[in-house]
Write a structure and sequence with these properties.
The complex is a heterodimer of chains A (about 120) and B (about 550). Chain A is mostly helical and about 120 residues long. Chain A has 4 helices and 2 strands. Chain A has helices at about 10-20, 25-55, 60, 70-115, and strands spanning about 65, 70. Chain A has a two-stranded antiparallel ribbon with strand order 1-2. Residues about 1-10 and about 115-120 of chain A have low confidence and may be disordered. Chain B has 20 helices and no strands. Chain B has helices at about 1-40, 40-45, 55-65, 70-80, 85-110, 115-120, 125-160, 170-225, 230-240, 260-280, 285-290, 300-330, 330-340, 345-360, 360-405, 410-435, 440-465, 470-490, 515-530, 540-550. In chain B, helix 10 packs across helix 19 (about 515-530). Chain B starts with a helix and ends in a 5-residue tail after the last helix. The model of chain B has no long low-confidence stretch (mean pLDDT about 90). Classes of the chains: A mainly alpha (about 120), B mainly alpha (about 550).
Chain lengths: ~120, ~550
């Protein structure tokens, strides 16, 4: 039961290869990677900038902005804001651009291989 | 007179803490028994039947992730060292973007019960699953010990057992051991009886309690300062005696030692190293990864991470108010008098706020009791998740796929998972009793470093790199795991410093406390070299993995 592939083994690997090489799947892959790779790089650099400034730019980080609230605190809060923002952007993007493509390809695969038992 | 009243209030707090804790235990055990009746198949046991909604799973992820180290530890570090504690909050939150963008949905689509389902998908099963099981159990045990040792350390303080006094005939040391055994026994029951379904509900209840408790305290702290953050910060800085430095980076991490450039350099490297491990560790934590299997689809997995980010982010914003609130209203001296590491800052703050807002010692005792009970609930929910992750891996990866080579029946596998949970729980109890003097934060940081160095490279290569193969996966996992543990063993946290595990010995040569900055790139490098050293490549299985992970076709 453990590592079973829940599809008829003889024909489907080739079926998957065919799907993987299709233009439609290439579009899906591009849609996903085109968003998540640059966004990962962006938030990682943004976070790294924060950590590096905390270590090496104390003068800047210690500057007071309003009352006792300094740049370090605002920078930290901005990391929260950017995290929430990226999460929201991704959810919106995935709903519009990734899900419809994925649904269509999945439906096409389903037509050929049939449903295979309950989705456990 | 006031001493007598305070002592009475302490007794009230203790009785109330115990009562609330027992209510939590009773409710969660009832849920566990109910869940056991719904648990029939392996999917029920490992993945809660995959019937949880995105919101429920988001809450459960929060309950699984916000450990005692987050709640008590971060509040404590901020209370004692000010701004630097905030780095943990930020790293622990930003880390969720790795899970959201790169891991959660693809893992949900292509895996079944464990992290290794994805890692071994297109590889030779035995070597990859063995490596994944070793890494899963190592990470989970380090994390588990941290929580159990933390529970033991807290109990004497939270129940107010002072040196020379006893509680139910136990002195502080006996009470610690009794607590570790109690926590261990409860987590074994939650997991063996309730499986993933029971564990998930325990985590949901805990997340609700923790968020409510933290919210109430945050509002009270802010109310105390007329909802002016600047006033709160100013007061905290003033009481700390460190002035503006308390609100700036550098009191705890990246410390600048005048006239010692080497020491300053290493301290700053340590800060960078910690920062990297925090942000890359989360998406490699097995107990977090298996939570994505409890929802029906990848879309629900995405929704659960979105909820988790909202819940966890809000909570970490609360920790700012809790930490600086404790610094301002309790004060560093009072806190270190209770616990040198500052772990009791949040409960002490609760007592101060309760006394202030709800009248005298009794009000203080009541709020202290509530927060103390929440802290225990927090620990219980996290240890249950960890025990489940490690027993799942032992049963599904090692027993069913390595020992039995895929021939075990579903019933056998689940029975082995239950036995594994019992054994892992028992081993953790014994280890935790011996590990009582270990620094809790160090154990958590080590778990994150191993997860980021071994598991994360293997997962990312697996999902995104066509050429990746068995040799690469095995190299990545063992390379990251061994280098992280090896470097920590020769670091100042194990020997050669006053706060080390073995303070009287010194065999350290690695200057950093956090291995991440070396071991994480090393893990990725190992995965790359290991891959190039082998010609194995299964194009068909890669096509299947890629299509299934991106589209959800054939998902379990």
């Amino acid at each position: 039961m453990t590592t079973d592939v829940p599809v008829p083994a003889a024909e489907t690997p080739d079926r998957y290869v065919a799907v993987q090489r299709s233009d439609e799947f290439a579009r899906l892959r591009r849609a996903l990677r085109g968003f998540v790779f640059p966004m990962t790089l962006a938030f990682f650099l943004w976070y790294a900038l924060y950590v590096i400034l905390s270590a090496y730019a104390r003068g800047l980080m210690d500057t007071k902005v309003i009352g006792h609230i300094n740049v370090a605190l605002i920078f930290g809060i901005l990391q929260f804001v950017s995290t929430f923002l990226i999460a929201w952007l991704y959810a919106r993007y995935a709903g519009r651009r990734i899900d419809p493509l994925a649904d269509r390809i999945r439906a096409e695969i389903g037509e050929v291989t049939h449903e295979h038992g309950p989705r456990g | 007179m006031s001493m007598v009243l305070a002592a009475e209030a302490d007794t009230t707090a203790r009785n109330l803490t115990i009562t609330l804790f027992l209510i939590f235990v009773a409710i969660t055990l009832a849920i566990t028994v109910w869940a056991s009746r719904q648990t029939k198949t392996a999917t029920d046991f490992y993945a809660g039947g995959r019937t949880f909604s995105g919101f429920q799973n988001g809450m459960a992820i929060g309950g699984d992730y916000m450990s005692a180290a987050s709640f008590l530890g971060i509040a404590g570090i901020i209370a004692l060292y000010g701004y630097d504690g905030f780095l943990y909050s930020i790293g622990f939150l930003v880390a969720w973007l790795v899970a959201l963008l790169l891991v959660a949905e693809l893992l949900r689509n292509s895996g079944r019960y464990t992290m290794a389902d994805v890692l071994a998908f297109r590889m030779r099963q035995r070597p990859v699953r063995t490596a994944a099981a070793v890494s899963t159990i190592t990470v989970s045990i380090f994390y588990l010990l941290a929580q159990m040792v933390g529970a033991g350390a807290l109990v004497a303080l939270l129940l107010g057992i002072k040196p020379g006094t006893t509680f139910l005939g136990m002195n502080a040391d006996t009470a610690k051991i009794a607590t570790i055994i109690l926590v261990g026994a409860l987590m074994i029951i939650y997991v063996t009886v309730g499986g993933m379904k029971g564990t998930t509900y325990v985590q949901i209840v805990k997340a609700f309690l923790l968020m409510s408790g933290a919210l109430v305290m945050t509002v009270l702290v802010l109310a105390k300062f007329n909802f002016n953050l600047s006033t709160l910060l100013g007061k905290a800085a003033e009481v700390s005696g460190k002035g503006d430095a308390f609100l700036e980076p550098g009191l705890r991490y990246g410390v600048e030692t005048a006239g010692d450039a080497t020491k300053t350099f290493y301290s700053k490297m340590d800060l960078l190293s910690l920062g990297i491990a925090l942000v890359l560790g989360t998406a490699g934590l097995p107990h977090i990864l298996i939570r994505f299997y409890t929802v029906p689809t990848a879309r629900a997995a995405r929704k659960s991470v979105l909820w988790a980010i909202g819940i966890i982010g809000t909570f970490y914003l609360f920790t700012l108010a809790l930490g600086f609130g404790a610094a301002a209203l309790v004060g560093g001296k009072e806190i270190t008098a209770q616990d040198k590491a500052g772990n009791t800052a949040a409960p002490q703050l609760a007592r101060a706020l309760g006394a202030d807002f709800f009248g005298g010692d009794l009000g203080g005792a009541t709020l202290l009791a509530i927060i103390a009970a929440v802290a225990f609930a927090t620990i219980l929910a996290v240890v249950a998740g960890l025990t489940l992750a490690s027993s799942s891996s032992l049963a599904h990866d090692f027993y069913a796929n390595v020992v039995k080579d895929g021939t075990a029946s579903e019933r056998q596998e689940v029975n082995v998972a239950r036995i594994s949970a019992f054994v892992i729980g028992a081993v953790s109890i014994v280890l935790a009793i011996f590990a009582q003097s270990l620094n809790v934060a160090f154990l958590v940081a080590l778990a994150f470093a191993v997860a980021a160095s071994g598991n994360l490279p293997a997962i990312l290569y697996s999902l995104f790199w066509r050429r990746f193969n068995t040799s690469g996966a095995v190299w990545a996992i063992y390379g990251g795991l061994i280098s992280a543990v090896f470097l920590v063993f020769f670091s100042p946290v194990v020997s050669g410093s006053a706060t080390a595990m073995f303070p009287e010995h010194d065999w350290h040569w690695f200057p950093l406390s956090n291995p991440g900055i070396i071991s994480i790139p090393f893990g990725f490098l190992c995965g790359w070299i290991g891959t190039l050293l082998s010609r194995e490549h299964d194009e068909r299985k890669y096509a299947e993995l890629e299509v299934r992970s991106l589209t959800g076709a054939g998902a379990h």
